[in-house]
């Protein structure tokens, strides 16, 4: 596709016995934030590493800004910024000094690196803090400096691999604001993450990846609309659960999921269904505390696509409630 700035076709990567990518087809248009969403082990980092020329594909093709990553890695490197999960900063030096060093490494030259570091610190409100040693920085600000390091060359494409992993909610918001600003400036961002709320907040297009392959694609709203609304029922006591579950399954024709006293079920015609549920639950003697209808979250979308269990609560306490969801941890496949 001509207007795709990042494009992969049947991309494969084998690590010995492990197939990390099994024929990934990606099409990322220019000047958007594209969310590459998937559980741990899905192949997100492998895809980012191939696109950033750090790993070679075993098969298929990847093209960034018109350059094939396998044939023209040098050209690709000139077009991209990469902010991985663990870029290294020198704790004893200030952010400004660190950025100047990164800038010189990315061949900006001494004066160019100096100018660009100052510009970025100013732009992202770090002009003052930028003159303190990064060793004393809180985690969020540190991550922001990593992000700025990846922006030194003014990349056309920025590849972000879980940029807010482990950060608190304020720091995450600061990073999100910076990423949005970049897109306003014309950069294309490929954002690999397992945080559904991050994609919901930032991305205008989403690719859901599992077992090294794309399993769904679309805008966040489009993906959600595919699975219908959700009915939430909270029963008064555990003894009412079996009866309420059976009744919800019969009325909606879908399989409800229970978590404690809370039951969730997808329903195509949620609005007319609710009064019927209330009437029948009442007649059956099951006592309900609350009942409501809500739009599905991206979490619900992925659950319905992959059939995986409900994710655990966000471990770093980022966002409470349904929007803080992430994928369940999955090892080794
Ligand atoms: N260097 C490696 N050697 C062997 N297996 C790897 C290597 N890197 C990744 N894998 C495996 O490839 C799969 C995809 O990993 P990865 O791309 O890191 O997924 P994600 O970033 O989505 O969590 C996993 O099964 C992982 O264990
Ligand atoms: Mg990863």
UniProtKB/TrEMBL annotation:
Its main location: membrane. It is found in: Cell membrane. It is a peripheral membrane protein. One of its GO terms (molecular function) is ATP binding. Pfam families: ABC_tran. GO terms for cellular component: plasma membrane. Residues 6-236 form the ABC transporter domain. Keywords: Antibiotic resistance, ATP-binding, Nucleotide-binding, Transport. GO terms for biological process: response to antibiotic. Coiled coil: none annotated. Signal peptide: none annotated. This is ATP-binding cassette domain-containing protein.
């Amino acid at each position: 596709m001509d207007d795709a700035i990042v494009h992969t076709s049947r991309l494969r990567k084998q690590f010995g016995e492990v197939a990390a990518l099994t024929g990934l087809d990606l099409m990322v248009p220019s000047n958007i934030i594209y969310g590459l969403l998937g559980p741990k082990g899905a192949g997100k980092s492998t895809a980012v590493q191939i696109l950033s020329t750090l790993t070679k594909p075993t098969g298929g093709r990847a093209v960034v800004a018109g350059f094939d990553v396998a044939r023209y890695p040098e050209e690709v490197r000139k077009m991209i910024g990469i902010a991985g999960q663990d870029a290294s900063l020198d704790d004893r030096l200030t952010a400004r000094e660190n950025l100047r060093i990164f800038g010189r490494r990315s061949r900006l030259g001494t004066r160019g690196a100096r100018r660009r570091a100052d510009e970025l610190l100013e732009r992202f409100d770090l002009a003052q803090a930028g003159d303190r040693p990064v060793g004393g920085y809180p985690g969020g600000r540190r991550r922001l400096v990593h992000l700025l390091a990846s922006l030194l060359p003014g990349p056309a494409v920025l590849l972000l691999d879980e940029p807010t992993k482990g950060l608190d909610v304020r720091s995450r918001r600061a990073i999100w604001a910076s990423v949005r600003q970049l897109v306003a400036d014309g950069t294309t961002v490929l954002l690999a993450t397992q945080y559904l709320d991050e994609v919901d907040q930032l991305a205008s297009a989403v690719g859901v990846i599992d077992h090294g392959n794309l399993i769904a694609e679309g805008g966040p709203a489009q993906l959600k609309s595919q699975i219908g609304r959700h009915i939430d029922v909270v029963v008064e006591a555990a003894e009412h659960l079996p009866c309420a579950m059976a009744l919800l399954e019969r009325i909606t024709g879908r399989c409800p999921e229970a978590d404690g006293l809370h039951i969730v079920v997808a329903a195509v015609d949620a609005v007319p269904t609710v009064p019927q549920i209330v009437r029948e639950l009442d007649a059956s003697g099951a006592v309900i505390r609350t009942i409501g209808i809500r739009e599905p979250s991206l979490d619900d979308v992925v659950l319905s696509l992959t059939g995986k269990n409900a994710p655990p609560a966000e471990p770093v306490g980022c966002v409470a409630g349904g929007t803080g969801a992430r994928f369940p941890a999955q090892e080794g496949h």
